[in-house]
Structure formats: C-alpha cells, structure tokens
Amino acid sequence: MLRFIGLVAIFMAHTFTSVVILQTVCFDVTLLILLSGAAFALTMNKNKKFHYGDYMWKRIVRLVLPTWIFLSVYFCICYVLSVNISPYHLVYSFTLLTEWYVWIIRVFLFIAALSPIILWQDRLIKNNTVFFLVVIVFFLFFDICTRDSMIEFHSFDFINKHLRQYLLYMLLICIPYVMIYAIGFRITRFSNIEILLYSFIMLVIFCCMCTFRYHVNGEFVRSDVDKYPPHLYYVSFTLGVSMLLWRIRKSIEKILIKIPFTMNCILFIGQNTIWIYLWHVLFLSMTKDINHDFWRFCIVFLASIAIYLIQFSLVKKIILPNLKNEKTKKYINRILCG
Q1: Which sign, positive or negative, has the C-alpha torsion 143, 235, 279, 316?
Q2: For the chain, what is the mean pLDDT?
Q3: Which of 46, 60, 103, 251 is deepest in the core (most CB within 10 A)?
Q4: What gap in Å lies between CA 240 and CA 195, rounded to an integer?
C-alpha cells in the first residue's frame, strides 16, 4: 500500500508545478527506498542465509532488464516519430549514468551491490538509538563534505568530464540513499514509540533548517533543492514523513479496505511499480504540452496503468501459456510482470 503512495507521489512530482504540492510529495523516492530496505529485512528473516550472487542477479533481472527493454521501446518510438535523441543520452540512459528518469534504477542497483555492508552495519550496531544517531551524523558529515563545492574533483583534473560525472552520480547521489535503505532495513525492529520519536526528530531538524533558510533567503526553500545529492535538509523532511507513513500504514489500510475494490487495485499497483513507473516516462513525454497539472497527472497515471494492464494480460494469457520451459516462464514473468 505504501508503494502505491510512493508511486503516486512520484507521478505528482513529475506533473505538478505547485510549490506546496512539490514540497508535500518530495518524500516519494525516500519512501520507496525505505520500503525496499524493509522488504529486504523481511526476506532475510525468512531466509537466514544470504547468497550475494543470487541476490544481485535477481535485482538485475527485476530492475535492469525491464529498464533496458523499456528504453529500447521508448527510443524506437522516438526514432519513428523523428524525435532527435543525442547519442550521449542513449549511452547514459542504458548505462544508467544519467539524471534522467532511470537514475533511480541505478540507485537501487548500487544499494543492492552494497547489501553485505548494510548487513554488517546492522549486526555491528545493536542499539536502535545509536543506529539512528549514526545515520544523522553521517548526513551531517556528508553535508559538510559536499555542501556548495559538490565535490567537483578539482584534484582530478586529468580525469575526463564523463568519468567525473560518473563519480559524481555514483558516489554523491547513491551513497546517501544507502543510509536510508539501512534505516528501512532496521525499521521492522523499531518500536512504535521509537518510530514516532525518530520521525519527530527528523521533522524538527527540517523545521529548524527551513526557518534558517527562510531568514537567509527571504522566502520558503523547498527541501527537494537538496535532492541531488540528498542532503540533510531534504532527508530530514522525506525520512521523517516516510517513517510516519510506515507507523500509520495499518490505520490507512483499515480505512481503504472498507471501500470496495480499492484495496485490490492499490495492492496490484503497489506490486507492479517498476513497469508502471517506466511507462509513465513515455506518457510524460507525450503530455509535456498539457498545461493543466491535474489533467496531465490523470492522463499519465491512468495511461501508465492501462498500458501495463495490457502488457500484464498479454504475458499472463498469451505468452506464458505457450512456453514449455518452466525456467523461461519464470524469467519472462519476473521481467515483464515485475
């Protein structure tokens, strides 16, 4: 259910222009990464043994292969419609070294690659409060090291522009999300009081930083200005809201379950976020001339779900029944019906 909320928040962030709405929904990526960490923790609780190679391969199948398939379709459509696409854009998109919409896939893959470190960190720090304080200290340290300069690698003049870009994206953008993922991995063992306390602390930090920036700039500064890479001003708000949503998720479910068919639809969308997210990129491009935010959101959201439903039905009713090899069926299902 929370994945559905995160996905809707992403769609709103990509279609609305209102400052209030953009500030409200900027928890989108943080929530999805937090949930990914929690899902990993629940999986580890069921399967005590962790096989790194198997886990990485599953993440590649689940994330990278669908992205490559979508990008192939997307750029073919662009070619047919005579849309000019830069060769650099093609290369950066397929390698995931881009700030375009598929950057989030790189983040999830990077987190998966560091999963053994996350497990080690979790086992090393037993106390939840100490664990949470370590995360705050990390973001303070990260702010000090990267603020303003953004680590432009001045000491690496011999490195060409593309490698500097690679280092910037891989290190500055991905590493902070590893800490958010680690919180998600731990949140399944936080007590309700701890979740509320930590959420409150993060939101207080945000309010203090927001007040300071308002006095300095003379106007409200949205927290997502610090999203690339994620700094404490961004993380304090998004992590505080995400943890609060985790705490009240069951209360939300109790309300939604009373509405006929609503919960089933939400669960379906929440279980198939990867492809719905990918398809929304296509419809964002097709609706960029629509000036009404709400209608653009509705079109992108409904069209993305509709085309995925067609894809899902084709795979389940036509492709899979005609395949004999069970292993092939499993991989096709995992890639196309994520």
Answers
A1: positive
A2: 89
A3: 103
A4: 9
